[in-house]
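Look over this today:
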Amino acid sequence: FDEPNRWMTSGGLGTMGYGLPAALGVQLAHPESLVIDIGGDASVQMTMQEMSTAIQYGLPIKIFILNNEWMGMVRQWQQLLHGERYSHSYSASLPDFVKMAEAFGCLGLRARTPAELDDAIRQMIDYPGPVIFDCCVTKEENCFPMIPSGKAHNDMILAEETRDLGSIIDDAGKRLV
C-alpha cells in the first residue's frame, strides 16, 4: 500500500463476520476505490445478507472467500493449541457461493486450482459491479500470524513457530475447548 488508511482489518482477533460490512462502509466512503474483502467462508456466511445492500446501492465490492469448508480460525486453534480436538468447526453443508452471487444479482466466480486463480482474479477486479469469488483452498491450511487466547499481540504465533506449541497453552487451557 503506497498511501495510509488503505487497509482495514479486525487484527486477527476472531471477529468473524467483520469483512463484508466493513467493505460496504469503505466502499461508501471511497466510491472510486477498489474494495476487496478477503475472508473465510464462515465469516462471509455470517453477513451474506449484506450483499443486498451492495446491489441496492450499486457498491462494487469484491468478496474474496478463502473457502476451506471450516471455521478456519476455530479449526486452527483446535489443531495447534487444543490437541486436535475438533468440535463444531467443520461446515459440511456450505452454500454454492457462485449461485448465491447470482441470486443476489452480482457476479459469482470460483477457482479450484492455482492455475485458475490469476485469470479469475483479473476478471473479479475488472468487473464493474459486486463480485463473490469462491477461492477453494486446502482444508488444512492455516493462517498466520495468530494470537492465542489471553495473550498479547507481542505473543503472536508465526508459521515457523508451530512446531513447539506445548508451552503456549497448558492442560487447563486445553480443557476449555
About this structure: Residues 114-126 form the longest helix (13 residues). Residues 17 and 44 are 6 Å apart (CA to CA). Strands lie at 36-40, 62-67, 107-111, 131-136.
